[in-house]
Design goal:
This protein is α/β, with parallel strands linked by helices and 207 residues long. The protein contains six helices and eleven strands. The chain binds zinc ion (2 copies).
């Protein structure tokens, strides 16, 4: 099963990607599911019913959380997380609640993830391929692969419809609910996958 694990809707002020467009186009991009990861909010739950939609597309809710040590995709049995936590408090909260965290665009020049977070094992999954990173930024994850053990995901980080599904996460188990997703991430049953759609990768931008 393939999910785009990192997607921003217009709930994020930086994104132009409409919820309706995600629902309409995701399956054509080869996606079985989409995770909505707006910045610092799970507001999406007020706009959409979570889970498998009538079309068969599975839409799950998480958030992208910004800290001084980098940005993290958070998924778990929670409907929000206080937005003023530092990274240690955030990891503690996610672990306490039984969630999973993904180190987003780890080597992006403007918003990198601090290596100590990976060294200390706070984050189960690293976004090994991010659709808004440059190739060079994505390739630098290799230096961590040689030093640490972690699972990897892929996400487009879409802020426009063109970007949706350009990078995916493959799951080695069926994922039909947020609980499935958290289980798969915590147990490393995931891998990054580049889309076969032949659009050039977007130029990296902020966020
Ligand atoms: Zn993002
Ligand atoms: Zn953004």
């Amino acid at each position: 099963m393939f999910f785009d694990l990192h997607v921003h809707t217009t709930i994020s002020s930086c994104s132009q990607l409409k919820i309706d467009d995600i629902l309409e186009h995701a399956k054509n991009r080869g996606l079985d599911g989409v995770c909505i990861t707006d910045h610092q909010t799970m507001e999406i739950r007020r706009h959409l019913k979570e889970g498998v939609q009538d079309s068969g597309l599975c839409v799950l809710f998480g958030m992208e959380y910004s800290t001084q040590d980098g940005d993290f995709l958070l998924f778990g049995p929670f409907e929000d997380i206080r937005s003023d936590l530092d990274s240690e408090q955030m990891f503690e909260a996610v672990a306490h609640l039984g969630g999973a965290s993904v180190a987003a665009h780890p080597f992006r020049n403007k918003r990198p993830v601090k290596e100590q977070v990976i060294r200390q094992g706070f984050c189960q999954v690293v976004e090994g391929f991010n659709g808004r990173n440059t190739d060079a930024e994505n390739l630098r994850v290799e230096s961590w692969r040689q030093k640490y053990v972690f699972a990897e995901s892929g996400g487009s980080d879409a802020h426009t419809l063109e970007e949706l599904g350009r990078v995916k996460t493959g799951f080695a188990m069926p994922v039909r609910s947020r609980a499935d997703l958290v289980f798969a991430l915590r147990n490393g049953l995931c891998y990054p996958s580049l889309s076969v759609v032949s659009c050039p990768l977007p130029i990296a931008t902020d966020n």
